[in-house]
Amino acid sequence: MCGRFFVDEETAREIEKVIHNVDLQIQRMRTGDIFPSQPAGILTQCGKRREQPAAIASGSISPALELKEMQWGFPQYQKKGLLINARAETALERKTFRDSVLHRRCVIPAKHFYEWDSDKNKVTFFRKDAAVVYMAGFYNRFGDEERFIILTTQANASVSPVHHRMPLVLETGELKEWVYDDQFAQYALHKTPPVLGREQEYEQQSLFLT
């Protein structure tokens, strides 16, 4: 699962390379640790392009990404708390998620994310190449605000010693395909994420594992 992630100024600068209309949007990028229920910068379809899928498919309009601010977590009307993750393998089978996965996909950028091992030690996961960790997700509107969920999948060898689930991490070159291309999205829901580096904290000490 993923219950906390971190965004810094370097992440914001890297995002400038993949989004449209940089100056106005990047000012809304929240930095620091991001917890469920808090707002975060999310990459989605850009403006009117989301209303012109045929033009995108034909190539007459090029896909572009927009940075928006959304709250993390879908409300549960019958229960307390928020839905913050969804299993990628079964998201299309869930009535709560299906329409959003089909029509409102997004990308959640982070410097790194955290998990906790069985001894409650915090472990930080990051890209070994120092790139942004782009996590696949989807969103929906609830009242007057948009909210997102992070998709998770079976943990690969770099994460499984700590937790059996991990975010569905995308490569930089896959971002627009995930957001715009329905066929690619079907494939991506079952892809194996890239191997990540990790740093484990033991009280006041840390151990780098790569």
Summarize it.
It is built from 6 helices and 16 strands. It has 210 residues and is of the alpha+beta class. The protein has one domain (5-209): Alpha-Beta Complex (hypothetical protein yedk fold), CATH 3.90.1680.10.
Furnish the topology, listing elements before pairings.
Elements: E1 5-7, H1 9-15, H2 22-26, E2 32-34, E3 39-45, H3 53-58, E4 65-72, E5 74-75, E6 82-83, E7 85-87, H4 95-103, E8 105-110, E9 112-116, E10 122-126, E11 133-142, E12 145-154, E13 165-167, E14 169-170, H5 175-180, H6 182-188, E15 197-202, E16 205-209
Parallel strand pairs: 4-12, 7-12
Antiparallel strand pairs: 1-2, 1-9, 3-4, 5-6, 8-11, 9-10, 10-15, 11-12, 11-14, 12-13, 15-16
Write structural notes for this entry.
- InterPro entries: SRAP (IPR003738), SRAP-like (IPR036590).
- Keywords: Covalent protein-DNA linkage, DNA damage, DNA-binding, Hydrolase, Lyase, Protease.
- This is Abasic site processing protein.
- This protein is of the alpha+beta class and 210 residues long.
- The chain has one domain (5-209): hypothetical protein yedk fold (Alpha-Beta Complex), CATH 3.90.1680.10.
- It has helices at 9-15, 22-26, 53-58, 95-103, 175-180, 182-188; strands spanning 5-7, 32-34, 39-45, 65-72, 74-75, 82-83, 85-87, 105-110, 112-116, 122-126, 133-142, 145-154, 165-167, 169-170, 197-202, 205-209.
- Strands 3, 4, 7, 8, 11, 12, 13 and 14 form an eight-stranded mixed β-sheet that branches. It has a six-stranded antiparallel β-sheet with strand order 2-1-9-10-15-16. It has a two-stranded antiparallel ribbon with strand order 5-6.
- The protein starts with a strand and ends with a strand.
